[in-house]
Amino acid sequence: MLLRELDTGVVGAPMAGGPTTPELVAAVGDAGGLGFLAGGYLTAPALAAAIAEVWDATSRPFGVNLFVPEQANAYAAPPGAPAPLTGAHRAAAVAAYRERLVADAETVGAQPGEARPGDDDDWERKVDLVVREKVPVVSFTFGLPSSAVLGELRRSGIETVATVTDLDEARAALEAGVDALCLQGHDGGGHRGTLDPVKEPTNLDLVELVVSVRAETDVPLVAAGGIGTRERADQVRAAGADAVQVGTALLLTPEAGTGLAYRRALGDAAYAGTAVTRAYSGRWARGLETDFLRRHDGEAPAAYPEVHHLTVPLRRASAKAERPDLLALWAGTAWRSARAVPAATVVGELSRR
Ligand SMILES: Cc1cc2nc3c(=O)[nH]c(=O)nc-3n(C[C@H](O)[C@H](O)[C@H](O)COP(=O)(O)O)c2cc1C
Description:
alpha/beta, TIM Barrel, eight-stranded parallel beta barrel, binds flavin mononucleotide
């Protein structure tokens, strides 16, 4: 099992939307970590091109992360879980939120995007692709694939990893037959990988989460969220994780594709902290607390991917204008320790060696 054999005990998180590049994945791998390409938001041909670049750049193994769309999610929420927004209610809530974004969009000369309900992120073609390419490790976020998909990957010699955020989700993923778990704590940057899209984020400490899952299983555990120092990485590994997965710590590395306005914001003392919000995508995610986040936080419906598509043009125009105002500045609570040093330095500093 690759995840158990990593001497460094460091995994480079997949970061969809630009920060993860093939160069970053190769650099993390060459430094003795395991890099992950972010398959989310990409079409299958774009992901195929990125996979080919990584194969060309390094002989080290790597992983690919895929978003599981609602229609392919085999996770069944426990009885009593909050009901998802559906049908006409959902469409009306998305349309109302779209109206609320118009004034912000105008500040960057854009309009909110179209909602694209039911967009499946090119799921089936990307599953076929990772099987065909025999990508060494495939991790999943936002849901559990069916046992048929997991079986197909296993027969191709691919290690499967499910991202989960609490013990119940961990149990469901193990029952579904994944090979390993990525435990994501509440301090982490970017989207919470809750299997149930409407579940409120928990405040469980990452160490507690690792201890509780380790007590029930021997499978490889990767732990993610708010890890910015060797001390924290060692604590999480000592609690039972085979490796730590870091995202924010890699955002300022030269190999990352993080845009200029995003990089500047991460070093800007004016940002006081991070917050968890649905304002950018309709799913909970942690980022720097922007004015946009504060104004729209309570307004966004639990409707992913529709809300994501509404805000895409605002975020693109903001990035193009090199303005941070409308960007989703995803960052974990340890964002102040992120530095503009090579990815190999980050892996070395967090390594257990
Ligand atoms: C910019 C950004 C994008 C992310 N995109 C993804 C993604 O595509 N898939 C995924 O599984 N996790 C994604 N994550 C979450 C990471 O996998 C990981 O859980 C998180 O970065 C860990 O917390 P940290 O940022 O404090 O290190 C993203 C995180 C960030 C910061």
